[in-house]
Structure formats: C-alpha cells, structure tokens
Amino acid sequence: MSDVLRTPDDRFDGLPDFPFAPHYAEVVADGVPPLRMHYLDEGPADGPVALLLHGQPTWSYLYRKVVPVLVAAGVRVVAPDNIGFGRSDKPARPTDYTFARHVAWTRSLVTGLDLRDVTLVAQDWGGPIGFSVLAAEPERFARVVAANTILHTADPALADRLTWAVHGSGDSRVVVEEALLDYLLHTQRAPELRASDFVGAATVAPVSAEVLAAYDAPYPSVEHTSGLRQMTALLPLTRNDPGARIGRRTMRALEEFDRPFVTAYSDGDPATRGWDAVFQERVPGARGRSHVTIAGAGHFLQEDAGAELGRVVAEVIATT
C-alpha cells in the first residue's frame, strides 16, 4: 500500500462548536492493511444508537448541530469519518479507495464496536455506504432516516424520476445530468480541492469563514485530499460500474427491509430530489410513515437545519 497520511491533531484545535472528544478504531478491507478510523461517540453508552454517516467532501464536523439534540434525547451518537476524510487515515494513492472498501471500512467499524439496534442516519455518500452495510448486517439495524441521499444503480426505471438524471437508456446508453458531469470533471481536473468550496455552494444560509475553515482542516496539503478527490471518481454513471452493481444488490436488500424507514429531505437539493419518493415506494418499511420535508435547507441540510434534523431523528427513535 502507498503511504498513509494522518492529519496533525493541532489542525482540529478550537474548531467552532465542536467540543467532542476523538475516538479511534482499527478497520479492515480486502487488499489493504488495517487503517485507523476516527469517530465521535457521544451520549449514554446504554442508549439507543444513532449512526450518522457523512459523504463527500465533509466529515463528522457536519453533524455538530445534530449531535447535541440526540444526546439530550438520551441517544448514543456514533459519527465516523470515512477513510480519507476528517481525522481518519488518508491513503495517499487515489486507487487505494474503492466503493467496496468504503463499505467494508464502515462495516468493520459497526461490527468492531458491536453496534446493535442502530438507527442509520445517512446523507450524501452516507446512503450508498450505509445502506450497503445494512444489507450486509441487517440484524444490527432497527430503523433508517435517509436525508438527502441516493443509491447508485443506474437503473433505467429511474428515468424521469430524478432531478439529476443518472440512469441507463436502452441497451447501451446512459442519461446523466450535465451538472453532475461538470462536478465530477472539476474534481478530477482542479489542481487543488477545498471542501469548503462545495459546502459553501450547497447551503442556503451563508456559512461563516471559521466554519468553512473547519471543513478544510483535515487537508493541510494536496496529498491529504486523495480520498476526497477519488470519492467523486467512484460515482457510478453506468450500469456496468462496480458501484452500480453494489447499488443494485443493496436496493434488493432494501426492498426486503420492513423496519421503519423515514425520508427527511430538504426542499433545496436538486442533486438528490426524487430519491425520497423512490425510497418511499420501494422500501417496505417506508410505507405508511410520516416522511419529512425540511424547508429552507440545501444539500448539506445539517448546516442549514441541523437541530431540526436532530429532532426528526429523535422522534423517529422515540416513536418506532
């Protein structure tokens, strides 16, 4: 394996509204040595567990407004940083990151901590990763709150269902939203990537300079951003992509998931709009539930409406 980088601890000193102690676990995936994954672990040790999963280009800092609401409700909150993000280890070679490994690393954390009766809270890539962990460890998950997330399948049945189209067409063509391609190409061609640029562009309310700097804290050099850059390259745009095959397998598992599944999407996120309705139709546990639309929030609804999302999750846990 290539060199593995660790962000110096002092990069995380004094971040706004982030008083949480770091925790670390060794996680494993096929083809690479064990790595160190960072996670938050807040609230009562014997409380019901909420597993908060982030996507690209954020880290557990994204959930700083959600965590206190859940802790006050008696919930134990576990919020990891994906490998390559936040305080977790960062392999320097982009090809060390695969979708299957991201799933395996998160699964390794869940099994290593022996998390049970889990409420999965998934946003952005937290959905494809977290749903795939649920498919592999279904007995550990009691309920799901899906928040501005998707599932990569490239399924032709998604035609005309999504604002940002990604689906097969006929036997050998695909339809992909131009904005998604622009985003993907930018992340591969830009000489530098700053997480803050994406966060600031995908929220409704202005984000302070101090908070934007906190999103950039894990990445003191270009070498530290390999995982951030590669995650976008892993987006499955065709039915033949390995990630799309994982996504279809995971969707089949979700179509058998009859425990509570609640969508909490914002009204200001074209990138995931339409997926809430798809999940509501396909997941048995979503039928008859009180699904939520969070007003006045963008893609990163944890920034725009973190406390409200926390209350939604707490209510789902308390009432199901």
UniProtKB/TrEMBL annotation:
GO terms for molecular function: haloalkane dehalogenase activity. It comes from Nocardioides caricicola. Residues 51-157 form the AB hydrolase-1 domain. The keyword tRNA processing does not apply. It is an enzyme of class 3 (hydrolase). This is Haloalkane dehalogenase. Pfam families: Abhydrolase_1. NCBIfam families: PRK00870.1. Keywords: Hydrolase.
